[in-house]
Amino acid sequence: MSIVWVMGAVASLAVGLLAERILGIRARRQSEKLTALKERLDVYANYAKLATVRQVEAEETLAGLRREAAEVEGEILSLQSAATGDDALTPMEFYCVDRVARPGGPLWYVAVEALDATAPWSGIRTYAVAAESAEDARRRIVERHPSPTAVTISPAIPLVLPER
């Protein structure tokens, strides 16, 4: 019976060694997987740090753009209020050329500035011209003041008179 015991002990030793090797191989594989997962986790942690830095940069840029937009919006509002203020309104005294405007017909605003002493006036004269187009209105003013060296004539723009 002692041989059976010895054989059983040897067999269990062989099974134990075989199981130890198998479990050792599995443990090494699991350890390698764990190491690879830790490396991936470190990479993702670095991505998270980079994303955080970029998010802060983007928020700073966005805040700067919002400040700039607010400044531009304030500037636009001030320009709009200046454009609609009483001082910036189109002059209420106009020279008329040769036609009376039809009710509802287009009026054009043309400014003519005297450049030198040969002009019959000094400063700027504003004309309200009744014409079908801007080109026609400007052409009629050029016919009235043909000297290009004595005066400068602005482009014709639509004239809308305020309701009083």
Please give a structural write-up.
This protein is of the alpha+beta class and 164 residues long. It folds into two domains: 1-89; 90-158, no CATH class. It is 57% helix and 13% strand. It has two helices and five strands; from the N terminus they run αβββαββ. Strands 1, 2, 3, 4 and 5 form a five-stranded mixed β-sheet that branches. The chain is rod-shaped. The mean pLDDT is 83.
Please state roughly what percent of the residues sit in beta strands, choosing from under 5%, 5-15%, 15-25%, 25-35%, 35-45% or over 45%: 5-15%
- The number of domains is 2
Number of helix segments?
A: 2
N-to-C CA distance: 130 Å
**Overall spatial form:** rod-shaped
Number of DSSP-assigned strands: 5
Keywords: Coiled coil
Task: Describe the secondary-structure layout.
Layout: H1 2-84, E1 95-96, E2 107-114, E3 124-130, H2 134-144, E4 151-153, E5 157-158
Parallel strand pairs: 1-3
Antiparallel strand pairs: 2-3, 2-4, 2-5
Coiled coil: 55-82
Keywords: Coiled coil
